[in-house]
Fold each of these.
Amino acid sequence: MKKLLLATFFALGSIIAINAQKAGYDPVNAPYGHGEDSVKCRMNLSLMSTSAKAENYKDALAPWTDVFENCPASSKNIYIYGPRIFKSLYVAEADATKKKEYLDKVMDIYDKRLQYFKDDVKGTVLAYKTYDYMELLEGAADTGLIYEWLGEAMTEMKDKMDPTNAYSYYMIASLTLFRNDETKKDQYINDYFTITGYVDQAIAAANEASDQANAEYLGLVKDGIVQGFINSGAGDCKTLTEYYADKVEPNKDNKEFLTEIVTALGSVGCRDTDIYFTASEFLHQMEPSAASAIGLASKSLRDKDYDTAIKYYEEAASLEEDKAKASDYMLQLAGIFSNQRNFPKAKQAANEALQYNPNNGDAYILIAQLYASSADNVFAEKEKRGLVFCAAVDKLQRARSVDPSVSAKASGLINTYSAYFMDTETAFMMGIKAGESVFIPGWIGETTTVRLK
């Protein structure tokens, strides 16, 4: 009994000594520990590094654990290899409880890195912590945590954020929170303007340093953020107008920023504001583009200067690299001519829209509507107006065959226009037979197949 008691006291004394040693660990003056502890720490660091570099994470685990627990300030490699070790364990593990332990360990490693390596850039460490969290949990990741951690990184780094794609991930988290909760709309809008401001500053700094590659990458990052904002529905005309109000004049020589303004305002139907027109004018003077031409076309329409509007619509289409957009510009022009009851020019513009995009079903529909609108004035004999509706139906059938998105609209008009076909008796009296080809004269100038009701 006495021997057992003595052994117990001896063991207890050893535990107390070990704990005292850990409590007395000096990460600044003695990061490796003292004496034998120092030798052991260095040996385990070497073993850990050798195995981890070879991606032999199983053998790296034991020496890593020893240095993490006993000399955590000895090497930054502890915090570089640590997440890799436990991420590999996480992926290989099937048990949910163990996976949670490995995930928590990865998060703890990043926290300890900030504790022991205070010279590390906090925002960067937080970003990589967030990335690993997102990678491991994938769709189950908590958006609120992502937003919180990256938000802290943004506050720390502002325009100096590295990795720079953290800006995108932060805005995706902010957008997701807004989409799940409409009350977070103002938060998302504020985040948008704050982060795009940081990115603008980062781009300016990259350009000043002649770091073109980084400037271009940041430009892509910003484009993605702006496009997400445009598509979010959060930015309305009032919000964007107020934001850009005092930024147009100072940036009148900044092509990228002016393009951003006209794109953002145009996307929310804000093409009739002075800010939009002013930005478009500056942009067009600097370097004519499709965006600036459309801005000036909108201004001309507002001022009822139709000849100038027509010129700019045609110019926008010719400058636009995206053929689908160019087609839409010409279709808008066709609509202007249609409103003016200038059907021949409207048809011509619609056909030009089809040259840019042969699958633009709306262009075919507009032509069909033009035909129907003029049905009473094509033939001298009013009884033949039904033949014009046959030509209109040709266009509608073509519309739904090339563009499924307009199928319902085209089908509805076909049903409507079919009611105006010639009846069998009238056709017989005029010597017209179903299925034969007839020429529609005048500005229509097309051959159609006779259909009767």
Note: Residues 1-22 have pLDDT under 50 and may be disordered.
Amino acid sequence: MEDTVSRIDTLQAIELAEGVEVRLRIAGPLPRGMALGIDMLIQGVILVVVTIVLAISGIGLGWNVASGLIMLAWFFMSWWFPVFFEAGKRGATPGKRSMGLRVVQTSGAPITFGQAVVRNFLRVVDGMPMIPWLPIPTMGFGLAACLATKRFQRLGDLAAGTVVIYDKVAAEPAVPAPPPMDAARPLVVLRPEEVQAVVAFRERAGLWSEGRRAEIADHARELTGDHGAAGVSRIMAMAHWLQEKR
């Protein structure tokens, strides 16, 4: 049941060694791709401006000096631009900040400078394969890794132990939850993670529409024996028993 709920909702709970539970809203490939596009646009504009300025300055500095400075500018913007921003307090590049995203460790803690270096330097691998005859990355490897991992981690994230999350999540409109009902004991013995899932359903039911509640409850038909509104009522009754009657 826990796996089912995790697939429906990207809000993932992580239990730390101290017994504290941290919930992270994992960002998928689409918002991350949009953030990357914004960053690349910003980098491109900066590099064009710097190149023009240095090219003009080359009249006095000499073309060899100007071309060397241009190459250094391209190097730092390509490799160190994201590291500089992600290793800071915000943990996000301008593109990620505009999309409301942030890079953190898998525990939810801010990433270190070393982790920022690893995840961004491995972007070269994530960018493979290149478009034939052009040095333009397709991000094929990175996208495949994102879709294959539970937390949408690309290869750089897996190596650095990082995830990309939503920094601020807009509050969902509250919908009245089903009214209190008589407690109902589960017909089978539940594992601890299943107990947590049933209780979490009751606690968060007020944030979902009736259709959303029914959609999630239908994945627990083996437990409830019902579907739709009847299944929702059955889960709510079992959660009531688990929390207050046992």
Note: The beta strands are 11-15, 21-25, 101-105, 162-166.
Amino acid sequence: MHGLLDRLAMAFEDRVPRLPQPWRPGPDLPFDPSGPPLPLPPLRRTAARGARRGTAVLVPPWKIRSTAILAGWVRALTARGFDVWIPVPPLHLERTPPGERSGEGAFTPDLGRTREVLDTAVRELRGCLEAAAAEGGGVALVGLSLGALTAAWAATGPERVDAAALVAPPADLAAVFLRTAIGRRYATLARRAGAPVPEDGELERRLGWLSPLHRTPTAGRLLVAGGRFDAIALDGPGRLARAWNTPLHELPRSHLTLLFGSPSLRREVADFAAAAGWPTSSPPAARP
């Protein structure tokens, strides 16, 4: 039943009319978001309840229509003493171009454009972490779904992160593109545009560059959570956990029920972030 919910959500997305979108491979080199942090994007801020412990940067999932759906996450984190900042990702909410749906253009068969959006999202998130550290107290980073992929990149950067919790990260983008309805949708749009996606090997190579599997995390503590019946991120959480040599916290959930239907996970993530304690050293150096 959990996996069925994911598949129904993808099926409803398939019914949305979309214009053809040609495949464009973008630069022929690995993605590297190591430029300077960007100014803060629009933020939704909620103050901590009780004694303040620090700041939690909560990175929302793809195509979010309202941050109200994250209220359970905000309650859990503020109850543990965190101010919560929700950055609005590029091309979402008030940053959506006129006539488009929130988040629609953030991931397309145009990998050059996708890389530009991902670069902006990661460097803005690094700006948020830098600003959060300046507020004093601990710095927690919580990413959800595609927001967890962005957060994973930021968790390998030079900015201080005392605890990073990555929930359902689609770390294996090639698997998402080749084995889910999301990938089939965009492959169809590219074919209709007369510029189809390449054969599997080339596609896997280029999408692999958009994943931080080859990076070394610099966050103080890590938690990677995945759903056993996830039909969207598939084994992305497991691959990230293995690559980063950290245990996978797996729950009997799907992608969507893990993100929005598990109060126990929200409490565990908030407790994990709070257990990181107060910063006692300078930020770790950036690693390649």
Note: The two ends are 41 Å apart (CA to CA).
